[in-house]
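Hey, quick one: can you model this chain's 3D structure?
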Amino acid sequence: MREGWQGWDEYAPFYDWENAQTLGRRDVPFWSRVASAARGTVLELGCGTGRVSLPLARAGVDLVGIDRSAPMLARAVARARKSAINPQSAARNPQFIRGDIRALPFRAGSFAAVIAPYGILQSLIRPRDLASTLASVARVVQRGGTFGIDLVPDVPRWKEYRNRVQLRGRAGGAELTLVESVAHDRRRRLTTFEQTYLERRGGRTRTHRFDLTFRTLTVRGMTKQLERAGFDVHTVLGDYAGRPWDERADVWIILARKG
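Sure thing. Here's the predicted structure for all 259 residues.
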């Protein structure tokens, strides 16, 4: 079986462009509120290009971001340098670290809160990978600290298709076209998105191909696993405005506390 982190290095040049047209920044104010309420340093799992990390740091959150993908982190660092934080403001410079969230390289009790935005835990495609990550988070978060998880519930509802044009647009002087295929492995609860990006620049076209695989997770299943890892689930939400959760919600947010 492939690893869940595969494909993300290749995705790095297109991640911000694609998400600006889909998710955008609509989850950032929510995570800013969660992180700002923590009394201490916050860890972001799968920080990627800094889409969430940088706005939180600008809001004054003392933040560490961890990701396995060096190309993703390189973009986060470049963005942080480009938007240099004014030392006279309350903002802080985020720290970016390359590492595996299944075995977090931090001392016990290092963080007041840990956040896992935008379905990052669904990239853990084996049950044991998720169990290892939850145990690792439980080790590094302080007693009473918050663990916030954002799940993408519609992954198993995507219909299978082949070579469908999903997005078109321009970025960095190039014309981009995303051609996508979707396949399900129902037995393993996995969904794979086969991505082909066509990059047209100056009359020439480059083709970039990679796969991203996600695992279906449920609120009930996640709650049980969090409890086994030593967390108490206290809030489940159905959107970033704080509305109650139900199975039809577009977003499933779980907030737990380290016991």
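One thing worth noting: Helices lie at 8-21, 28-36, 53-58, 70-82, 127-140, 219-228.
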